[in-house]
């Protein structure tokens, strides 16, 4: 449903009534066999027209979580708990849960169980970390491909790639993406920040799932890259 | 090579679909219950947290124990002690035996209602919860015993300061919910609603629905539903209109549309569904009242921005909750049926094309969309002339391919109006194989008279 752009401006505008066009009815309108007459409709409380809305109301009443001792102003919304083993995140909206699932659980490496924000990054990870052929080929040719989807550049070493990401795609200088995990336990990285579409470079704006989430070595955040920063209600920590 | 491998390594996304499936099952059960008129919404404010429950009595209580708890709650020396007594009582009231013992006690309900006027929020809340447990009783005698509490509740609710804000918004929300339950009782139109309308409560309710920084979503939702049940009863809607219900609800609609437009908030789905639904219903039913014409202009709903707001909400419903589209279109029908001004707004704001885009949603939606377009077309040539350019005729021909007789019937009504008021409509209809589209319905009993009449007009003018 495409709304005209002027509509939003009208909503924000001054109150007012439209000057009506002249009304000229023909007596033949609505005569037999036709029966249309413009009329306002009233519905009683039990009318079947209200069924859908009433069902939504009852679902709301059943889902409401009243938190008296806590914050009384917390919006009353159903909660969705992530069912993936070991993850116990709770979300207020289905959309948030879906975003969380796609970001953290959809692109998961079956070898080391790491999650990635996009299929492109999962492919790159599998290639670089779990393919024995990769190391052999990397000695002879440029194999480290750029992490930005759509960029075709390849590099001899991961350090060269990092330099390219920082200079060409404006990634932060202390961005880390290819350090192996030191232990089997969960990583405890610093705050996560999401690089904007502009910072990712390329002409096409990547979709939400394609935006590369990056972590920083230090707890202090570096200056933001140019462009807008997208933040989310939950923190997703991902590294290649 | 790698894409093939990648697909094999990815787990299947099943969590979301399962959630949706569970919700659909619940919806189906609720629909069945509603049709059998057995749908009672239970919204229990229980918090069965074992840590909190420690030290609290949760057994069947006798009259002596109930009396002791009530006495403690009223005259206890410490607030904590008073609250603890009420919590124990409330837990006991979960048992039918305790409920029976409670209602046998003289003045027990009155004592509870008296505690609602306490200046301690937690005492208020526990008293409300005790009433809540009683009102949910399966036993009719217990539910009936709660009825005398209605007038006390109203007195309490109405007796607040002009701000009408309880020390604890949760209390106000719970009371709004309790009132909404009472207003649905069979006796409500005769016994309850007249006393509600006779009190200052309607003005307070409308105050709680005033857009602005003080608007609390949870509270507004409950009192908007209260208003819906009052309006449906048709006891005295003229009173609500003179209190400015139309303008307040209209402004709230603008506010909701503004919120939908401004933010991608997670709680917004709730705003869209839970507050918009009763607000749309209240406005739609109030517009049918004769009293609308009698009140001053500032009390009426004439602001063109209402149409803009409604379309923004329709777009939101289409994305988030399509089941609410008919309710929005019902309001659009009631706005355009008798108002050349609102019809003109739809034309001047270029809203006919977005409206026609809803024709594919469902039969109910299609009928309502076509009805709104008929409301505009029946106002005469000036309106049809503005309607005609664009996708109207192709959309109409598409609806003639529908099998639903109501949708097709409404399309035929619209065609008649266009043939009557729009020069060139017949010619364009013939050029776009309109007669073949009509032929499909020649044998349908409810449609054939109108089909023949249109065929005749198209062929012979």
Supply the key terms.
heterodimer; A: 240 residues; alpha+beta; two-stranded antiparallel ribbon; disordered C terminus; B: 461 residues; mainly alpha; Zinc finger protein 511 isoform X3 (chain A); Znf_C2H2_type (chain A); ZNF511 (chain A); Armadillo (chain B); Transmembrane and coiled-coil domain-containing protein 6 isoform X3 (chain B)
**Distance between termini of chain A?**
40 Å
Class derived from helix and strand content of chain A: alpha+beta
SSE pattern of chain A: HHEEHEEHHEEHEEHE
SSE topology string of chain B: HHHHHHHHHHHHHHHHHHHHHHHHHHHHH
Query: Could you list the spans of chain B in which at least 5 consecutive residues all have pLDDT below 50?
Result: 1-13, 47-54, 160-165
User: Into which percentage range does the β-strand content of chain A fall?
Assistant: 5-15%
Descriptive account of the structure:
- The complex is a heterodimer of chains A (240) and B (461).
- Chain A is α+β, with helices and mostly antiparallel strands and 240 residues long.
- Chain A is built from 7 helices and 9 strands, in the order H-H-E-E-H-E-E-H-H-E-E-H-E-E-H-E.
- In chain A, the strands form 4 sheets. In chain A, strands 7-9-8 form a 3-stranded antiparallel sheet, with no helix packed on it.
- In chain A, a hairpin with an 8-residue loop joins strand 1 and strand 2.
- The longest helix of chain A has 13 residues.
- Chain A starts with 5 loop residues before the first helix and ends in a 24-residue tail after the last strand.
- In chain A, 25% of the residues are buried.
- The C terminus of chain A is likely disordered.
- By secondary structure, chain B is an all-alpha fold.
- Helix content of chain B is 70%, strand content 0%.
- Chain B contains 29 helices and no strands.
- The longest helix of chain B is centred in the N-terminal third of the chain and has 21 residues.
- Chain B is elongated, with a radius of gyration of 28 Å.
- At the A-B interface, helix 1, helix 2, helix 3, strand 3 and helix 4 of A face helix 1, helix 2, helix 11, helix 14 and helix 16 of B.
